[in-house]
Specification:
The longest helix has 25 residues, at 33-57. α1 crosses α5 (92-112). The radius of gyration is 14 Å and the shape is globular. The chain has a two-stranded antiparallel sheet with strand order 1-2. It contains five helices and two strands. It is mainly α. It has one domain (2-112).
């Protein structure tokens, strides 16, 4: 349970940092901590449930592009999360850039707070 809570906090922190770093991804004005936590939880669930299915369905395309299509899938997941939370993404290209930044920020946070 502690690991799940830590994941939620790290996902939320990563989304918040990306929203500060990149103007194409932001939270709606007036969003509070609960909105951030909901977005972090949905981001984590989408990565755990939807992303593997999309990766499997697009495996031939992913192999053809040597894995670069994974960036498109990450952008699509971010765009999907923005549709159901207080997170706003300006456009799909903004979602791609945001997903790349989110991956880098998550990598840094996971490295910083590793077990």
């Amino acid at each position: 349970m502690r690991g799940l809570l830590a994941r939620l906090v790290l996902n939320t922190l990563a989304l918040w940092l990306v929203s500060l770093l990149y103007p194409g991804v932001r939270f709606t004005p007036g969003a509070g901590l609960a909105d951030y936590l909901v977005a972090g939880a949905i981001w984590g669930l989408a990565n755990a449930l939807i992303r593997p299915v999309l990766l499997l369905l697009t495996l031939p395309l992913n192999l053809l592009t040597l894995g670069l299509f994974t960036l498109v899938i990450n952008g699509a997941i971010l765009y999907l999360v923005a549709q159901v939370t207080a997170l706003e993404v300006q456009s799909f290209p903004s979602a791609l850039v945001g997903a790349i930044l989110l991956s880098l920020v998550s990598l840094a946070l996971n490295w910083l707070f590793r077990d």
